[in-house]
């Protein structure tokens, strides 16, 4: 498609956009009385308007039924979480039984490490990307120390090449090959939070498995953003949060995936609690743990229903639209944003560059040369909510559910004004 950097052209794209009506399904923050241009769906997705009614339903059931709500609420609480498994399975490319929703992301990753990081004398190393999301670094380091090992000798980071802003799959595969029998776990963020790169999860997973390692993915920036086939790729485990592209509210619950082949095993090392034991006999309060045959075996506590309600609401929107339509619009709107950025970069001659590689999802990361922070502050004042990462990167994620092509055009105009104002 031949793009144009004009309001009329952007509006034409909006008219043809099959998802244009979904914008109205979300609450937009306002700055100076106008809806903002929202680029931070990769950090905290906007609130769907129907979320309130899902929370109200739980509050009302609690008000009217008290403890009876566990079994007699409109959506009974004791198995509320099970309603999320089917829609999530579609989004993650999983079987329903491979999905559970519980706790929060970093907590779940720790719990999954109990099962999938079991170092031995000879096989103990972890492979990850350099400068992983800080929580992932802390989690790996503390897990390693917990096992009495030294992080410096255990955690191996794949580096970007000098002068490049992205990781090369071939470098990751070479490292896996090199570590071979020593490699216990490959653990990477499927979509990098900083540069927006989408890793070749299928190829990397296969390579990890071929040397006998477990392979797990942090999908915080992948869930609800890119096409996933966790089951077919034979990923061992994955976890993600629900508040980024999944629009389920600040700090909300996390989903986990555990491959079918690890389910239904009594001897799986795992931290256990009463909600992981078989539903049928749970309330007999027996002293012996009998795991559920599903990923719910990893559930420790009874579900946080007030947190799951907004997640369930949001998943209804995903059900209605489907990942395919979201990805189709995502590709076009990100390409349009890229086009506009390049147009502006030409006009203001090289004050910034896009560092996101072609393997990407919804996010473009823009590296600002020279004065970055004042420009970012200027944009915020003009009603653009974007996100700043040190030293000099603005992350822009035009979430296809609610961002418009007109937003992209208007952003371009503001960016140009802002840069010219800084230069003057
Ligand atoms: C957002 C994000 C997290 C956040 O973890 P919480 O436990 O939900 O605070 C973790 N890892 C990655 C890669 C992220 O992008």
Number of helices: 13
Which structural category fits the helices and strands?
A: alpha/beta
* Overall pLDDT level: 96
CATH topology of the largest domain: Aspartate Aminotransferase, domain 2
Query: Which compounds are bound in this model?
Result: pyridoxal-5'-phosphate
Outline the biggest β-sheet: 7 strands, mixed
Low-pLDDT runs of 5+ residues are none
Helix fraction by DSSP (H/I, runs of at least 4): 25-40%
**Amino-to-carboxy terminus distance:** 35 Å
Question: Care to describe what's here?
Answer:
This protein has 424 residues and is of the alpha/beta class. The chain has two domains: 7-35 and 322-423, Aspartate Aminotransferase, domain 1 (Alpha-Beta Complex), CATH 3.90.1150; 52-321, Aspartate Aminotransferase, domain 2 (3-Layer(aba) Sandwich), CATH 3.40.640.10. The model has no long low-confidence stretch (mean pLDDT 96). It starts with 6 loop residues before the first helix and ends with a helix. The protein is globular. Helix content is 37%, strand content 15%. Helix 9 (201-210) links the parallel strand 9 (183-189) and strand 10 (214-218). The strands form five sheets. It has a seven-stranded mixed sheet, sandwiched between helices. The structure holds pyridoxal-5'-phosphate (PLP). Residues 104-106, 133, 135-136, 189, 193, 218, 220-221, 241 line the site of pyridoxal-5'-phosphate (PLP).
